[in-house]
Amino acid sequence: MSSQLCSLNNHSLLRRNASRLPGMSSRVRDGRSSSPSNRGPSSRRSPSPSGDDLGRELGSPTASTPANQVPATAFTLSSARRTLAGGEKAFFETMSMNAGLDPVHHEYAQYLAEVNGLAAQHIAQSVAQAKTLFNIDKLSDAVGRMAEKLEEVSSMLENHLSAESQSNGPSANAVAWVCSPELHSYTALEANRVWLSHSFFSSIRTRLNAQPNEWKQQHLPGGSLGIQDSVGTRLLTTHIRNVCKHTREKLHILLLTGIYDPKTGAVMDDPVPNLKLLWHRIANRMGVAGSHADANSLWANTDAPTRARIAYLVSDSKKSPCLKQLSHSNFLLFVPLLHQRREAVHIFQNGRGSGSVWASVDKKLASLRAKGDDYTIAFYKVVYNQDREAFNFKNLFDELKETCDFALPTDEVVEDAIGAEQSNQDDE
Where is the composition biased (Low complexity) (predicted)? Predict the structure, then answer.
C-alpha cells in the first residue's frame, strides 16, 4: 500500500495511465512536472508545490536528508497533504467503490491518499498499520469475552433446562417422555392406520391437557362459547412439534458420542464410551441425572429410568413376569439405550440423517410389539452382548467401522437366542 501511495503522489502511475483515466491530460500540473532550473525568470510557482518543494521550504526530509538532521518542526498538517486532482480523484473514487468502502473508511482512505512526500507517506502508512493491528487486538479481546460469556450463558441455560424438567411446559414434558414407559413412537402418530395415543407428540399433548385448570388458563389457548382459539391451537401444535424435533435431535447427537462430532463434521478420534459413561452423559444433558454427579453413582441408582427405557421399546410386553425378572439385572437395564445407539450408528454409517434414525426406531418398536415378549427379550440380549463387545471405551470408531456393520440382529439370530434360552431353562 505504501508503494501505491508513493506512486500516486509521484504521479508515475497516473502518467502511465493518463490516456485511460477520465479528466486527465498527458501532463499533470505542468508547474510541478518541470524542473525549477528550466523555468524562465518570469515563471510563476504552482499554487500546489511538489513534495520536494515543500521539503526545501519547510525543512521536511528528503531522500538525501539524514533522519537525525530533520528539524522538530518539519511537518504540518497543511504541508503534508495535498488535494487529489480531478483524474486522481476519479481514480480514487472508482477504487473506493470497487472496494465497497463505507463513508467512514472512504474518508480514511482519502486522507491517506492525500498524504504528500515520502517521509509523510511512511509515517501515515505506519499509523495505518498500527491502527489495523489495534483493531485486530480489540476484535480478538471482544471475541474472547464473547466466548467466555457464551460459556457462562450455556452453563446457565443447562441449569435452567435441568430445573425446568420439574415444571409442566412442553419442553419439560419432552425430556420426561424420552424416558417414559408409555412411549410407543418418536415420530409416528399412527401405525397401520391406528392412532398411537402414546406417541411422543400425543403423550406431551395429553400431559399438558392433564394439568390443573389454573395452569391451562395461563399457558394454553382457550376458547369462548365453546369455540376454540384456532390460531392459538395451531401455534401450540407447532411448538410441541418443534420441541419433539429438537429433543430427538439432541438425543441423536448424544447417541453418537465418540462417533461423530456435529460441530466439525468429523469422525471422532476418542474411544467410543461404554454404556455406563454414555448413560451418564445423556442423563446429565437431559436433566434427569438428579444428584448423581459421577457415572458410578448414577449407574447404581438408575433402575427407574432404565426400566422406562425398556418399557418404551417393549411397549405392551412391560407387564410380562419374565421381563420384570430381567429388569432387575444390570446387564439388561440399559439395552434399549444400546438399541438406539446401534440404530443411530448403523444409519450414520450408511449416510442417512437423524430423521431416518427415528423412523427406523418407530418401525422396530412396532415390530417388537407384534412379535411378543420372548422375541423382544432375546432381541435385547443379542443387542446387549454385541454392543458390550464393540463399545468397551477402548476401541475407536475408525477401527470398529472396518469390522462391524452395526446392523441389528436378524430374525434367525434372535430365534437361535430364544432356543438357547429355552434349553438353558430346561437344563435347570
Answer: 33-52
